Amino acid sequence: MRKKIVAGNWKMNMELSEGVAFATAINSYFKDHPLKDKEVILCTPFIHLGTVSSLLTVKGLTAGAQNCNDHKSGAFTGEISAVMIRSTGAASVIIGHSERRSYYGEDDTLLAAKTVEALRNGLRVIFCCGEVLPEREKNNHFEVVRRQLDKGLFTLPVEEFRKCVIAYEPVWAIGTGVTATPNQAQEMHHFIRDIIKNQYGPDVASDTTILYGGSCKASNAAELFANPDVDGGLIGGASLAKDEFCSIVNAL
Ligand code: PEP
């Protein structure tokens, strides 16, 4: 059975003390409202990871990073490796977020290398894919997502691929307030599951968690999550407000 997951992507927000207070509040909320079979991941800035990881005590609630370097260690000033992330107690890392792809020029080859390095160090990878608006307008969105997954993820052997979660995030929906319709989300998630099936077989396809991301909030989460191939969400802006974020988790 595939996991149901809500991951919050804090991006470059919150000072350390704010992040610690926020994570403490989330932890105590889920202490009172057990997650049961669901998982919640708080993807914080690097500086929060050690402290936040150690204060998350609730079953199913863990910390994750938003990026990692593709090398193990060495002279890469300002970078953070997967082994360093793992040493904080964090369990996951986002790879291939559209902001990394567009602002920092991260291409499919680099993202494939980051994914391998993250998996080698025991991190679960949340691998992002998604088209920009002109690609959707030209009806190229399926091909774009297929290429991103082919090059970034489908080079993995099956036992490594099984440790990954996919996040479909149409770039035109990220931070814009424009959400994919439930039909658009389901259509793409179904397509992704289908290409996983071709690559790794039906059991792996059925076990893979596919999250939706892009202006998902408490008011639209339930209708997005109601789709059979949508297994949860990767949440940006709405992960920064406790009540909103917890409502999204409750909608799952
Ligand atoms: C994201 O950045 O992954 C994201 C989904 O952002 P938002 O929810 O703000 O659209």
- What is the total domain count? 1
Q: What overall form do the CA principal axes indicate?
A: globular
**Radius of gyration, Cα only, in angstroms?**
17 Å
Question: Which structural class is indicated by helix and strand composition?
Answer: alpha/beta
Element-by-element helix/strand order: EHEHEHEHHEHHHEHHEHEH
Mean of residue pLDDT values? 97
What is the CATH topology descriptor? TIM Barrel
Ligands bound, unique? phosphoenolpyruvate
N/C terminus separation: 15 Å
Fraction in helix: 40-55%
How does the major sheet shape up?
8 strands, parallel, barrel
Describe this structure in words.
With 252 residues, the protein is α/β, with parallel strands linked by helices. The chain has a single domain (4-251), classed as Aldolase class I (TIM Barrel, Alpha-Beta Barrel). The protein is 45% helix and 16% strand. It has helices at 16-32, 49-55, 82-87, 98-103, 108-120, 133-137, 141-152, 158-161, 182-200, 202-207, 218-225, 242-251, and strands spanning 4-9, 38-43, 61-65, 92-95, 124-129, 164-168, 210-213, 232-235. Strands 1-2-3-4-5-6-7-8 form an eight-stranded parallel β-barrel, surrounded by seven helices. β2, α2 and β3 (61-65) form a beta-alpha-beta unit. The longest helix has 19 residues, at 182-200. The chain is globular, with a radius of gyration of 17 Å. It starts with a strand and ends with a helix. The mean pLDDT is 97. The structure holds phosphoenolpyruvate.
Secondary structure topology:
Blueprint: E1 4-9, H1 16-32, E2 38-43, H2 49-55, E3 61-65, H3 82-87, E4 92-95, H4 98-103, H5 108-120, E5 124-129, H6 133-137, H7 141-152, H8 158-161, E6 164-168, H9 182-200, H10 202-207, E7 210-213, H11 218-225, E8 232-235, H12 242-251
Parallel strand pairs: 1-2, 1-8, 2-3, 3-4, 4-5, 5-6, 6-7, 7-8
Helix pairs in contact: 11-12
The chain binds phosphoenolpyruvate (PEP).
Phosphoenolpyruvate (PEP) is lined by residues 9, 169, 174-175, 213-216, 234-238.
